[in-house]
Design a protein that fits this description.
Main location: membrane
Number of domains: 1
Organism: Kineosporia succinea
Largest sheet: 2 strands, antiparallel
CATH class: Mainly Alpha
Subcellular location: Cell membrane
Distance between the termini: 31 Å
Protein name: MFS family permease
Order of helices and strands: HEHHHHHHHHEHHHHHHH
Number of helices: 16
CATH superfamily: MFS general substrate transporter like domains
Number of strands: 2
Helix content: over 70%
Strand content: under 5%
InterPro entries: MFS (IPR011701), MFS_dom (IPR020846), MFS_trans_sf (IPR036259), MFS_Transporters (IPR050171)
CATH architecture: Up-down Bundle
Strand order of the largest sheet: 1-2
């Protein structure tokens, strides 16, 4: 029998326990995503200490994204029938294992394994935590709009991604052992995140008969095929911006722009993700189509300004362009999640979200690796300009799909 028939959410019930659980899961989600970007401002330190090239940094970063994709393909949807907590707790455990690996060695092989393990954990967490938050919100506030869920889930996701580099950058700038202390801090937070998930109520009733396991499929069959394709393409474009700022951007700022401060690197990444999270809140009441169009225009404008900053080696323009692009990416991603949650049947919600995140995280891998390969033959300004051109073409395509959906 199909997963659609066998898996069903637990019966909604208005209770303060579901309300508390909503915020506990949001906390765990935010901590997990923040940990995944802790190495971002530290990459220049690894480069200086062990002689890593920009290409090798993108390989280490890509190992994380590959882990996410593998996890989403193999297990991103299984919480639909085994339960949300039974997936979230082991996933957070994987993040703890990665933290230990970062603490024991800076060897390249260990870094690659640590980033891969981090990605495996994040791949399990993203779709599962998002679905869990949607169901906790519905159980706590039956009949209410999904705006609170959309705002909190995307803030935990995108805001968490920005919070990690901010904390790591400041710790690396002003405390001893800059390649160890940030991981110690987040190891403690991850332990608290596990406790938070264990204290939250489950929202999925396991089926009497477990369905036959199959890897995650990528299907647009979720009520509105054109809308689902538009949402996944939008997620790809948004994650491409996030991938740029969590992989090669800190090295570009430290090298080409001559600003080696680890705190500054963390602030820049935080500004991009913080702008994304803030924009998600400010656009919460916009209609879905307007929200998507606004995000597309903001990201396109940000890319143009970003290229100006790159070509003129102007930090201010680079930062403004990054913030504008981050605003667009955040709004696009929020609109995409809201669209997928609304169109997917509850029993396939985890599957639909896993597909969305799968395509989105491909947006982390492909552009980052492409940039890493290209900088071996071309200067960084030329490579980033080409990246912007390709992404602008993709945004135009998303705009066409959005009008047709």
């Amino acid at each position: 029998m199909s997963q659609t028939i066998l898996s069903r959410p637990a019966r909604p019930a208005t209770s303060s326990r579901h309300g508390r659980g909503f915020w506990l899961v949001a906390f765990a989600f935010g901590v997990a995503m923040a940990f995944s970007t802790v190495p971002t401002p530290l990459y220049p330190l690894y480069m200086a200490r062990d002689g890593f090239s920009t290409f090798m940094v993108t390989v280490v970063f890509a190992a994380y994204a590959v882990g996410v994709v593998i996890s989403l393909l193999l297990a991103g949807h299984v919480s639909d029938w085994v339960g949300r907590r039974r997936v979230l707790v082991p996933a957070l455990g994987l993040e703890l294992v990665a933290a230990v690996l970062f603490l024991v060695s800076t060897d390249l092989t260990v870094l690659l394994v640590a980033r891969l393990v981090t990605g495996l954990g994040v791949g399990l967490i993203t779709a599962t935590a998002t679905a869990h938050l949607a169901e906790l919100h519905a159980a706590h506030r039956p009949g209410a709009s999904g705006q609170r869920f959309e705002m909190v889930s995307t803030a935990a996701n995108i805001g968490g991604l920005g919070f990690g580099p901010l904390v790591a950058g400041f710790l690396a700038q002003w405390v001893d052992s800059p390649l160890r202390t940030p991981y110690l801090v987040f190891a403690g937070l991850l332990v608290l995140a596990v406790a938070a998930v264990l204290a939250a109520p489950e929202t999925v009733t396991p089926p009497a008969e477990k369905p036959v396991y199959r890897p995650q499929r990528i299907s647009a069959d979720h009520g509105d095929p054109a809308g689902y394709v538009a949402a996944t393409a939008a997620a790809f474009s948004g994650f491409s911006i996030f991938g740029l700022f969590t992989s090669v951007a800190p090295g570009f700022v430290a090298g080409t722009l001559h600003h080696p401060s680890r705190a500054l690197a963390g602030v820049i990444v935080f500004a991009v993700f913080g702008a994304a999270a803030a924009a998600q809140s400010l656009t919460a009441k916009l209609p879905a189509r307007v929200k998507m169009t606004t995000g597309l225009l903001a990201e396109a404008l940000g890319l143009v300004v970003l290229v100006v900053g790159v070509r003129t080696e102007a930090l201010a323009a680079f930062l403004v362009g990054g913030v504008l692009a981050g605003i667009g990416a955040g709004v696009i991603f929020k609109a995409a999640i809201g669209r997928v949650v609304a169109m997917a049947a509850p029993a396939r919600r985890g599957e639909a979200l896993a597909g969305l995140f799968l395509i989105g995280y491909l947006g982390l891998i492909v552009p980052a690796l492409g940039i890493g390969v290209a900088v071996r033959s071309f200067d960084t300004a030329t490579v980033l300009t080409g990246f912007a051109g390709v992404l602008l073409a993709l945004l135009a395509g998303v705009g066409v799909l959005n009008r047709r959906s």
